[in-house]
Amino acid sequence: MKHKLLIANRGEIACRIIKTAKSMGWDTVAVYSSADKSSLHVKLADEAYLIGNPSPAESYLVHEAILEAARTSQATAIHPGYGFLSENPEFAAKCSEQNIVFVGPPASAVNVMGLKGVARQCMQDANVPVLPGINKITDKTTIDEIAALGFPVLIKPEAGGGGKGMKIVHREEELEAALVSAKREARSAFGNDSLMVEKYLVKPRHIEIQVFADQHGNCIHLNERDCSLQRRHQKIIEESPAPLFSNSLRQQMGEAAVSAAKAIDYVGAGTVEFLLADDGKFYFMEMNTRLQVEHPVTELITGLDLVEWQLKIALGEALPLTQDQIGIHGHAMEVRIYAEDPSHDFLPVSGEISHLRLPESIMSLSKLRIDNGVQVGDQVGVFYDPMLMKLIAWAQERSLCIEQLSSGISELEIAGIRTNRDFLHRLISHPPFQAGGLGTDYLDNNLGQIIREKEPKQLLIEKSAICLYLIHEYNQASNTEIGFRLNGSSITKIEIESEDELHELTIETEESKFKVILGDQKLQCQLVSCSFGKGSYDEESHVIAPFNDAPYNKNIIIDVDQIQYRFRIHQREDSITLFSDKYTTFFSLSNEEQSHSEEEGGVNAPMSGKIVEILVSEGENIAKGSPMAILEAMKMEHTIRAPYDGMVQAVHFATGDIVNDGIPLFDFPQAS
Fold first, then answer.
1. Residue 162 has pLDDT above 70, yes or no
2. CB-based burial, 304-333: b 16+ in 10 Å, e otherwise
3. Rounded CA gap, 431 and 278, in Å?
């Protein structure tokens, strides 16, 4: 019998599962919302079915829509991926009732570990160490009871994961608002607004153990992963083996994780997560009853395909290896590429991916793996997690692994939307990270060392490269030479916009040499070369590499003080994206005035999203920093605050409205 697998997910994990299933000879079925009809996972699957509107609550979280797609396609199994229904015991039970294999643990195990409060109680009963906390917040739970745990405390949704809905509360007066916000986010992301709370451990490391169990009572662990580098409880870098981690601790944690899985008769892939304190004590945090985003680092150090293991175990096969056959080979590290703007508090962004170049020269050496879920032309919307892809590097040693990952990030190019590419490059080059052993709070306390403004000279070099590129394009179109003097003059003026700031540059030309002037800054430079990139289409990844949309992509080299600077340029209409190994810079050639700006007395939407709540009314006087609205984007809530003291003159939207990035939300002149 040939198996047919329905993947009840989207993005990079759906693409990954489809590829593994096909390699095993399975037929594959994708499901998609109306926002995903042209997505990569839909193109890769053998069949695809529409299951609803873009909102997860109307598509990927609708049990019956997914089960109907399974029945129609005659799928024999459903893989939930991670997120959405992957830890939903009701859905797992419904699959069993309809004789569809659920690729995951039985509903009973999902029910215990899928709710963090229930899992805490289970671990307490099994004498696994846990932090002080309240397993379930009810209407009878008082503020005083929560405060008695001692601040800071961490509020967490009982269902789900990924940091969504989690709130660190440092003072009692912040509790009530944090509980309300956490409930909203949990309901939106997971369809369950139940919360728990526990004491927040300061400066811990986040260490998790990958476990696998079959239907015959066998259970093993596949070593640890260090997931401590986080921002807003969202993992950014994961690696294995954990740095500065002893074999003794590895054995203790591994045994504890296996005991936890056996206590609930677990089956399939799971991850037992621990907090590791400075004194070497560890505490159970939660168990994810699914495949984790960071599972590729375990695959690279063990040489195993965990999705293949999942599918085989779901069909009743025994574990293919025993504990003593699991080793650690080399070092692996993963970074997550997000559609977000680190320079603006990591706000998620939306828009169209106009250009995508994957680091193929590194991949061809089998030292870098890309788990990708996007393609050129994709619209990154506001309804789903902003993760676009993952880069995973492997090498014999950690330092070499970091080098491979750095090279991969340098070659990666994404245009049309902002990403955390540059931030990741700076982070893995950061000496404390390279030393290893950082805690979960490191980024929150040290972002200023990593997110820093470019040096003025670097900015001028980038602007100069754009100017020389534009002059070269003009000369090419006019069949003239580089040193041609526009309009018979040796002086050219070019206006470009970057980071919402308009720059007028003066370029003085003398043969092939240029002097670029911006205000009181001057730079002597020379154009070394400006050449077209060559492209080739990859049928599997649906990416044109190394450059797409030719002839709008070029390599440019300029010489400044006998140092050569190399850039890659992607041009689309009147926008230009400049890539170097370390930086991505966006330029616009248009000079359109904003119809409404905060400087003119307005507060604009910092990103596209859905208005969850309007907190002010017309005629109300508001102090600087006061919350004005709550905007939900990509399953996270963001509070929009007053930029100064003033009075609300007009409110342009209502609760439930969808707004675009930059659109005026309030007329709000500054108080005189």
1. no
2. bbbbebbbbbbeeeebebeeeebebebbbb
3. 20
Which of 16, 205, 225, 290 is the catalytic position? 290
- 3-state secondary structure at position 461: helix
Q: Where are the beta strands (DSSP E) in 314-446?
A: 331-338, 340-341, 347-348, 351-352, 355-357, 368-372, 379-380, 387-395, 413-415
- Give catalytic status of residue 290 as yes or no: yes
Angle between helices 11-23 and 306-314 (to 10 degrees): 70
Tokens of 658: 């969808």
Does CATH place domain 330-452 in 3.10.20.600?
Answer: no
| Average pLDDT rounded to a whole number, residues 287-312 | 96
135-199 has CATH 3.40.190.10 classification = no
Q: Please provide residue 257's backbone torsions phi and psi, each rounded to the nearest 5 degrees.
A: -65, -40
pLDDT at 488 over 50: no
Q: Which fold has domain 105-131+206-329?
A: D-amino Acid Aminotransferase; Chain A, domain 1 (3.30.470)
Q: How far apart are CA 67 and CA 102, in angstroms?
A: 11
Instruction: Let me know: does 353 contact 414? Beta carbons within 8 Å.
Output: yes
As a CATH number, domain 598-667 is 2.40.50.100
Which DSSP letter does residue 670 get?
B
pLDDT of residue 215: 97
Q: Which CATH class is domain 456-588?
A: alpha beta
